[in-house]
Amino acid sequence: MELKNMNVSDRKAMLLQALENDEFYLLYQPKLQLRTGKVIGAEALLRWEHPVIGTISPLDFIPFAEETGLIRPIGEWVLRSACKQNKMWQEMGLEPLTMAVNLSASQLFQGDIAEKVENILKEMELAPEYLELEITESMTMDVEFVLPMLRKLKQIGVSISLDDFGTGYSSLYHLKEFPIDTIKIDRSFVRNCTIDAKDATIVKTIIAMAHQLKLEVIAEGVESKDHLIFLQQNLCDEGQGYLFSKPVSATGFAENMRAFEQIFLSEGLSEESSRQMWFQWGMERTNLELQEAMRKQQGMIFKYVDDNGRFVHTFSEGELIYRMQLTPEQLIGRELQDFLPAEEAARKLTYYRRAWNGERNVSYESDVDGIQYITSLRPIAKDGKVVEVIGCSVDITDRDGVQQELSRSNKAEEALRQSEARYRLIAENMTDLVCIIDWAGNFKYASPSHVTVLGFPSEAYEGQHASVFMHEDDRQKVRQHLGKMVQTKQGVVFQFRFKNINGDWIWLEAKANPIFDESGNFEHFLIVSRDITERLVYEEKLTHMAYHDTLTGLPNRRLFKEKLEQALEEAKQNENKMALMYLDLDNFKYINDTFGHEIGDKLLKEFTRRVKECLQFCDVFSRQGGDEFTILMPGIKQEQDAISMAKRILASTQGDWSLGRDRFQITSSIGLAFYPANGTKERELLLRADEALYQAKKDGKNRYRVILNDKRL
């Protein structure tokens, strides 16, 4: 009798009996870190093996256990068993792992869950950092009760994970206020993230948002290589799914940890590629955090240069700017008189001039609308010549309204020392390239950072036309951007190539703004650029890896699908014929299993080389996986063209294959399908080609087969 057909009392009795008779057991699914491919954790999953009924699905008994409250003793058994197993793995010598255990709503609302968790950890002698408790979004609805419970659990030292994120009722408030360490992207989004733009956007957004909130992200339901690479490219922290392993026993988990990691190494991005990607992200994040730190500082930092006798600000940030009812955009590219009263601007101009002339420790006090601050100006010299001045300002306003004149001087001096220590490190080590360009395209100023990034000193640019250093293919595009900015009076972001001192072309990404005087007359362009060469090269490499097989270099299933869809659309519009070929290596599995994967990989590479020599320029040759390949032939005039190619491919595989000291005899079987004779849709053509391949195998291998009008040829 099925469990669902029993009455309530009988089902309750069965569940209690199962608990007493050890009919429940746990399986474990590995969780891998997507940066390194290392197994770093496992999720404990409950199963029930009844002595008479057999295996009972969790979907059939867990909802009932939750309704009746029996989930509490069952959940406690799961928690204790999972912790016990984790401790046993550690004692076996396995690297410490984090064990994830699902908490039910009934357990969480029990009130004493923190005490039970702490007691179990002590009983099993397991450190709390190796336990992760998973809760669902719906469990967070009762904020007043749940929030204190989660805080108690966090005080123990365990981590909290929000399961099935995006499918429940959680709000951003929960992510902000709840002591959550990790969010799990629901498998329903991961399943189609490589083929559905909306799911892809959702996954990317969740990852980016989590990282901004300093949360870890794990994706469940990773079932294909495409899933893995997509998640790696978008910097997901961890992955879990059938690509690595289905849930297995404790013994199976321990014995196959290296196998799980090997799957990652063979299917995912290389560790070096992943490291570079995370390093790039880390650098960008650090830069943003530095900028944010400057913006939040109570003081202000700014830079200025001498532009033909005019002191123009090239950088400005800090909370003090906003408190004075200004923004950085109102200062950058402008002189003092553009944003200050004439009398105040004239007074400060004398200090600006003294600092530019090389005087050190220039300082002055200011009062703007009741905000009192002191500023220190520090000249930055190169080869004995001042190239820019850094200014640091700190607020010295007594917020309580009580003037303490005697301590004011000491207060300001100490504040300036602390402020300069913070700001100078940031300002002097900035690798952003700041320049001022006039309408004609001539450099009026180039920041000292140009020598660090491009090798040329800033003096080498001044007075030169930008085209001297810019790639000729980018000049017209950049000129159009500059003209558009003046027309719209809006800044733009664009990319271009610039020559470095070695003669190499460096890709720069620029944020440019046009600067106008009070009368609305154009003055110059202020352009801030950064080197993005490595990022572009890396993105290109990632894109290639996402669409190509790493062993043979051929297009993978994903790229072939796109090419096939495109070819079908063109064939429909132009009423052309098209052929699709499905082929594999005969007896490859036997050779691969007998002689090892290294020989198998060499065979696949050699097969790829031989087939390539038979193809036309417009043909698309793809590896689908294993020893299965496809060829798309969009340029055939008649079916015989594809049949002739199949014969050439078969001929190319005949005879001995020499791989070092080893010699093999390898043949291929081929199935052919034609558009429109065998179908007009992608799935139809692939199915008919696969049927023809099966027929070729059935008829003795080392041959081709094509099905036309239900006739096998």
Integer-rounded radius of gyration: 34 Å
SS summary, helix count: 25
Strand content: 25-35%
Tell me the number of strands.
Answer: 27
Could you say how many structural domains there are in total?
Answer: 4
Which stretches of 5+ consecutive residues score pLDDT under 50?
Answer: 399-409, 419-429
Q: Would you identify the CATH architecture of the largest domain?
A: Alpha-Beta Barrel
Structural class: alpha+beta
User: Largest beta sheet, briefly?
Assistant: 8 strands, mixed, barrel
What CATH calls the topology of the largest domain is: TIM Barrel
Domain PAC: 492-544
Domain GGDEF: 576-709
InterPro entries: Biofilm_reg_signaling, EAL_dom, EAL_sf, GGDEF_dom, Nucleotide_cyclase, PAC, PAS, PAS-assoc_C
Pfam family, one: PAS_4
What are the salient characteristics of this protein?
PAS_4; TIM Barrel; 8-stranded mixed β-barrel; Beta-Lactamase; PAS domain S-box-containing protein/diguanylate cyclase (GGDEF) domain-containing protein; 713 residues; alpha+beta; 26% strand; flat; PAS-assoc_C; 4 domains
Topology:
Layout: H1 8-20, E1 24-33, E2 39-50, E3 54-56, H2 58-68, H3 71-92, E4 98-102, H4 105-108, H5 113-124, E5 131-136, H6 143-156, E6 159-165, H7 172-177, E7 182-185, H8 187-190, H9 197-212, E8 216-220, H10 225-233, E9 238-240, H11 250-255, H12 257-267, H13 271-296, E10 300-307, E11 310-317, H14 319-323, H15 328-331, H16 342-356, E12 362-368, E13 371-382, E14 385-395, H17 405-428, E15 433-437, E16 443-446, H18 449-453, H19 472-488, E17 492-499, E18 505-516, E19 522-531, H20 533-547, H21 557-574, E20 578-585, H22 588-595, H23 597-612, E21 620-625, E22 628-633, H24 639-652, E23 656-659, E24 662-665, E25 668-675, H25 682-698, E26 704-708, E27 711-712
Parallel strand pairs: 2-4, 4-5, 5-6, 6-7, 7-8, 8-9, 25-26
Antiparallel strand pairs: 1-2, 1-9, 2-3, 10-11, 10-14, 12-13, 13-14, 15-16, 15-19, 17-18, 18-19, 20-22, 20-25, 21-22, 23-24, 26-27
